[in-house]
């Protein structure tokens, strides 16, 4: 692996970005689901910067109990502070913590990278919110002691509900709105929900653009599936569609490649060819924002079934594309992304398929 | 959404899920026959997967002095230019160039079918069957390391000739029926080199290697290889084109953003290389110092690949599309950028001119087909209907609008597009429909006030040499397809219109030939045969009827004098 590292350095030569580190991650037995997602997150620069900042400020405050957040921050700081530019790191503590934290990931079985990403982001948010609330409580306790007859009722509760957005939210959170139009009274009911990623149904020989369109296509609620209209006070036929109200800064798209097949009573992997462009705009936004995104990471599932296989990731860093396969890091080319679109016919070969796509907003960058 | 095709949901559905016809207002287009390379061909990929491209070559009769009479001297160069002439200059020349292109079938079809079978059953030694001196229409396509040639007018599925490239995969090709000294076929390969050769000589030679070809080595490709730009892969040829009306001049575009101009009359390859491109995103045109060798000029056009190029039918303008999402139109002789504009997002993958040179089509990774106006120097419409990337766009030069004898000024065009969604889409472009929202952004209709159209739509014509950014979604008029039909199992890579049919090719190299409807056929109860033609007897019947369609194609194609005067 030393040779591989130096090969990467040689390949980049003088173009090796200053201060950047390209490190492979050791596999502790089927932990590639974790490694591939960690690489994508490491090269999500706004996320990494915030995490390293958190690490720095946290370090100074001293002993905090170990959790997923501190372990991840440790790992990222460890990578970024390596003397060497390339090499391999063992994310041992992080994996141990992960297994302690969630029994799903405890076994040596093949795990789902998207589930891991989801778990990790939610865990980080929980920890940050707890810390935030604890900090505020101590602040409030402080102020309470000062003027104890102040109005306190209701305030903490109200605040708690929409607890301040953490930096994880600022990176990944978007808001979807569920528009339902009653076909009788024409009243439109909006219901907002937040998301960290969009999970899209996929079709054979389609594009992400098309999958996003389908995601937001209008669906009619009728027959068994009527909508209770508050205005009509009864079940009515209605039209429903999902739109993106607030596009996230980092858009994570999860392709639903693992589908439960009723007849088989098990999950099956769909290797459909789904093309994804290096730049993307969301067509299904509420305000037609025309916001442009740029692809910077792809987590790829390799293998024909859901219960076995391998995960690798392709990552863009300083306009170079890199290929991360556990310990191995290699230079690759932008056009290699196309090799992971999928297979145009069900039983023909290619099982290395893009599974989670990471796009960053270009507006945020400039 | 206008997705009339059965959609991608059919997942692993085989060819059985595909219909063998599709309907347009003109009638039923039937799958006449298919062509592909023989499955026995050993596919060795020198470098990754190749995408099959298709070129239709109209080979003329062998010139005088070789025993046969010379063909019409003034016919167009290339299919598109011939079509331009027929659309541009009234009836006389239309009939004329039509004759030189389309009706060859009736004359020499049968003999060539015999020849085709002979050549395909035994790779060599059957030369007695056909000498290929006459006219003919051939399909040239590439798969893996081989270039195949099929006879368009034969129903034989196998190619009549395969040319093996031992060192580098052929990726793109072009044919010039007007080429003077015999070398009419260009082949661009993965290494970045280009070969020119005579199509007729290839057909006449029994071997598997190209014969008496000229090899244009691109020395320039080897230097300054930025590993992040793909190293060797970045010099691969993406498109080759003969320059119309400029004898022997051709251009080759590459994945590194360079385009080279060659002159086939200059045989030497110079050792001289072009200056280093310092800013990859800037246009830089350099000329060779020596006047002896090739290439004679290099145009560095954009950062990343040039994905496709296309010359206007008169050869005056060169359009390029690329990875950076821009369409650029150059005055080729003046070497000057006229205008450019961007996709909605992502790379543009293909471009093509209308026969009169007034409109340009492009398509790309935003799943859209863009229509550009040369007069307005901007985008005039977006075609929405593909469910994946658009691989090829083309105007149908043989189509004429209905009611063309009416004097209204509603100029119409028919164009087609194929995509990675396995669909063929046909579109009508009626200019009175799309012109209104563009030229009068909000003035005429107060109800549009909420939209507050952006200012640049008011400008009649942007100044020369300006690249325009992506327009906003709501600012561009939208077109819906007339027909959307899932024609192949695999993603499509190419589309060609001929006088008698529409040709589609998929990335894997299967070609389908869809016969245009004939008048007699559309008149006889068009709805009774609605069901999918499945069994072989019905298919045979269909084939014979489309033969008939071919023979009477002149009645289908009525000349219209009013339109482009």
TrEMBL record, chain A:
It holds the Pfam family UCH. It is an enzyme of class 3 (hydrolase). Residues 23-362 form the USP domain. Its main location: nucleus. Keywords: Hydrolase, Lipoprotein, Myristate, Nucleus, Protease, Ubl conjugation pathway. GO terms for molecular function: cysteine-type deubiquitinase activity. It catalyses: Thiol-dependent hydrolysis of ester, thioester, amide, peptide and isopeptide bonds formed by the C-terminal Gly of ubiquitin (a 76-residue protein attached to proteins as an intracellular targeting signal). It is found in: Nucleus. InterPro entries: Papain-like_cys_pep_sf, Peptidase_C19, Peptidase_C19_UCH, USP, USP_CS. It comes from the Eukaryota. SUPFAM superfamilies: Cysteine proteinases. One of its GO terms (biological process) is proteolysis. Its EC number is 3.4.19.12. GO terms for cellular component: cytosol; nucleus. Belongs to the peptidase C19 family. Recognizes and hydrolyzes the peptide bond at the C-terminal Gly of ubiquitin. Involved in the processing of poly-ubiquitin precursors as well as that of ubiquitinated proteins. Required for the correct development of pollen. This is ubiquitinyl hydrolase 1. The gene is LOC101781214.
From TrEMBL, chain B:
Residues 520-565 have a biased composition (Polar residues). InterPro entries: Beta-prop_Nup120_160 (IPR059141), WD40/YVTN_repeat-like_dom_sf (IPR015943), WD40_repeat_dom_sf (IPR036322), WD40_rpt (IPR001680), WD_repeat_creC_regulators (IPR051362). Residues 140-339 form the Nucleoporin Nup120/160 beta-propeller domain. Gene3D superfamilies: YVTN repeat-like/Quinoprotein amine dehydrogenase. It comes from the Eukaryota. Pfam families: Beta-prop_Nup120_160, WD40. Keywords: Repeat, WD repeat. WD repeats lie at residues 306-340, 341-382. Residues 107-126, 517-565 are annotated as: Disordered. PANTHER family: OS11G0176000 PROTEIN, WD REPEAT PROTEIN. This is Nucleoporin Nup120/160 beta-propeller domain-containing protein.
């Amino acid at each position: 692996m030393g040779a591989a590292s130096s090969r990467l350095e040689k390949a980049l030569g003088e173009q090796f970005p200053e201060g950047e580190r390209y490190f492979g991650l050791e596999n502790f037995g089927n932990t590639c689901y974790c490694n591939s997602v960690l690489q994508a997150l490491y090269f999500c620069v706004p996320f990494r910067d915030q995490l390293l900042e958190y690490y720095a400020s946290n370090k100074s405050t001293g002993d905090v109990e170990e959790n997923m957040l501190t372990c991840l921050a440790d790992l990222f700081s460890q990578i970024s502070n390596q003397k060497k530019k390339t090499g391999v790191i063992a994310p041992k503590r992080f994996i141990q913590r992960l297994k302690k934290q969630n029994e799903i990931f405890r076994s040596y079985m093949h795990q789902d990278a998207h589930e891991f990403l989801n778990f990790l982001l939610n865990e980080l948010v929980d920890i940050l919110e707890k810390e935030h609330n604890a900090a505020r409580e101590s602040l409030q306790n402080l102020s309470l002691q000062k003027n104890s007859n102040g109005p306190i009722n209701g305030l903490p509760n109200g605040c708690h509900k929409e607890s301040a957005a953490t930096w994880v939210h600022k990176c990944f959170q978007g808001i979807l709105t569920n528009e339902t139009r009653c076909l009788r009274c024409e009243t439109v009911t909006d219901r907002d929900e937040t998301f960290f990623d969009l999970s899209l149904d996929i079709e054979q020989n389609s594009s992400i653009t098309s999958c996003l369109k389908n995601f937001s296509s209008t669906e009619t609620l009728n027959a068994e599936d009527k909508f209770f209209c508050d205005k009509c006070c009864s079940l009515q036929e209605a039209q429903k569609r999902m739109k993106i109200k607030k596009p996230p800064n980092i858009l994570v798209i999860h392709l639903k490649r693992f589908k439960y097949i009723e007849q088989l009573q098990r999950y099956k992997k769909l290797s459909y060819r789904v093309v994804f462009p290096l730049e993307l705009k969301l067509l299904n936004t509420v305000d037609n924002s025309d916001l442009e995104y740029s692809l910077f990471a792809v987590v790829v599932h390799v293998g024909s079934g859901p219960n076995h296989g391998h995960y690798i990731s392709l990552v863009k860093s300083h306009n170079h594309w890199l290929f991360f396969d556990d310990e191995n890091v290699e230079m690759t080319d932008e056009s290699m992304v196309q090799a992971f679109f999928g297979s145009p016919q069900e039983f023909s070969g290619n099982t290395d398929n893009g599974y989670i796509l990471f796009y960053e907003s270009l507006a945020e960058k400039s | 959404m206008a997705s009339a095709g059965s959609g991608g949901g059919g997942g692993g559905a085989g060819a059985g899920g595909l219909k063998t016809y599709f309907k347009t207002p003109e009638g039923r287009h039937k799958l006449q026959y298919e062509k592909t390379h023989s499955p026995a061909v050993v596919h060795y990929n020198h470098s990754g997967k190749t995408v099959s491209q298709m070129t239709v070559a109209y080979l003329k009769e062998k010139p005088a002095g070789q025993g046969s009479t010379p063909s019409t001297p003034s016919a167009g160069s290339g299919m598109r230019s011939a079509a331009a002439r027929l659309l541009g200059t009234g009836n006389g020349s239309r009939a004329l160039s039509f004759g030189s292109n389309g009706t060859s079938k009736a004359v020499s079809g049968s003999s060539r079918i015999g020849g085709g079978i002979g050549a395909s059953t035994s790779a060599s030694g059957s030369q007695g069957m056909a000498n290929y001196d006459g006219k003919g229409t051939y399909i040239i396509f590439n798969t893996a390391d081989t270039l195949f040639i099929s006879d368009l007018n034969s129903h034989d599925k196998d190619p009549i000739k395969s040319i093996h490239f031992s060192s580098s995969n052929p990726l793109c090709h072009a044919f010039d029926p007007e080429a003077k000294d015999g070398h009419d076929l260009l082949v661009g390969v993965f290494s970045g080199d280009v070969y020119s050769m005579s199509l007729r000589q290839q057909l006449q030679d029994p071997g598997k290697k190209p014969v008496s070809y000229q090899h244009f080595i691109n020395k320039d490709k080897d230097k300054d290889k930025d590993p992040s730009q793909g190293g060797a892969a970045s010099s691969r040829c993406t498109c080759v084109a003969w320059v119309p009306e400029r004898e022997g001049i051709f251009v080759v575009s590459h994945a590194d953003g360079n385009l080279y101009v060659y002159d086939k009359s200059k045989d030497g390859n110079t050792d001289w290389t072009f200056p280093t491109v310092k800013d990859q995103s800037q246009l830089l045109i350099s000329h060779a110092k020596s006047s002896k060798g090739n290439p004679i000029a290099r145009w560095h056009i954009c950062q990343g690949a040039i994905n496709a190029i296309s010359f206007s039918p008169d050869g005056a303008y060169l359009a390029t599309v690329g990875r950076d999402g821009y369409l650029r139109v150059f005055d080729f002789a003046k070497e000057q950028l006229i205008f450019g504009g961007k996709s909605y997002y992502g790379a543009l993958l293909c471009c093509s001119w209308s026969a009169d040179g007034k409109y340009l089509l492009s398509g790309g990774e935003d799943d859209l087909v863009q229509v550009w106006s040369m007069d307005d120097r901007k985008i005039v419409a977006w075609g929405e209907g593909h469910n994946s990337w658009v691989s090829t766009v083309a105007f149908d030069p043989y189509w004429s609008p209905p009611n063309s004898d009416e004097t209204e000024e509603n100029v119409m065009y028919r164009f087609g597009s194929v995509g990675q969604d396995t669909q063929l889409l046909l579109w009508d472009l009626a200019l009175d429909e799309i012109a209104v929202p563009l030229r009068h952004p909000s003035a005429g209709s107060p109800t549009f006030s909420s939209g507050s159209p952006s200012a640049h739509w008011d400008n009649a014509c942007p100044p020369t040499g300006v690249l325009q950014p992506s327009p906003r979604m709501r600012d561009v008029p939208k077109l819906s397809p007339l027909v959307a039909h899932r024609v192949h199992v695999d993603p499509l890579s190419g589309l060609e219109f001929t006088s008698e049919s529409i040709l589609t090719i998929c990335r894997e190299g299967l070609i389908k030939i869809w016969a245009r409807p004939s008048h007699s056929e559309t008149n006889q109860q068009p709805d009774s045969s609605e069901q999918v033609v499945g069994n072989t007897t019905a298919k045979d019947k269909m084939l014979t009827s489309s033969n008939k369609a071919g023979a009477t194609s002149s009645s289908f194609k009525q000349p219209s004098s009013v339109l482009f005067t």
